[in-house]
Amino acid sequence: YVAVARVSNLVQTIKFLQEQGCWVTGAEAGGKSVFQTDLRGPRVIVIGGEDKGLGRLVRESCDEIVSLPMFGKISSLNASVAGSIILYEAVRQRKKACPTFTANLRLDAF
């Protein structure tokens, strides 16, 4: 399972999660490569919309912006596909750092 939180104000929620010690990573075109980004530790990943990416205030609230490098004639991916690849990369990095890693997802703050 993947923890998904639906909130009424994303910017306020980002600030709250940062105060709790989470690093917030926004994902949209034009960011640094997700494969060159450390995704270990307490992490929130916000996926931008397929047409417009992240909203300005959400983008400004993120600690960093990442993207997936594109090759050939493909310029972007469906948001759910991009999100899946980014989440897989986060798990891959965590497993590499700690081979016994298992996801421990909590939403009890909401």
Rg over CA atoms, rounded to whole Å, is 14 Å
Give the strand order of the largest sheet, numbering strands 1, 2, ... along the chain.
2-1-3
Number of helices: 3
**Average predicted local confidence, pLDDT:** 86
Low-confidence stretches: none
Principal-axes shape call? globular
Percent of residues in beta strands?
Answer: 15-25%
How far do the termini sit from each other?
17 Å
> What composes the largest sheet?
3 strands, parallel
Helix fraction bin = 25-40%
Could you give the order of the helices and strands? HEEHEH
**DSSP strand count:** 3
Structural class based on helices, strands and sheet pairing: alpha/beta
Molecular structure report:
The chain has helices spanning 10-19, 56-61, 79-97; strands at 23-33, 43-47, 64-67. By secondary structure, it is α/β, with parallel strands linked by helices. It has a 3-stranded parallel β-sheet.
Tags for this model:
single chain, 110 residues, alpha/beta, three-stranded parallel β-sheet, globular
List strands and helices in order, with pairings.
Layout: H1 10-19, E1 23-33, E2 43-47, H2 56-61, E3 64-67, H3 79-97
Parallel strand pairs: 1-2, 1-3
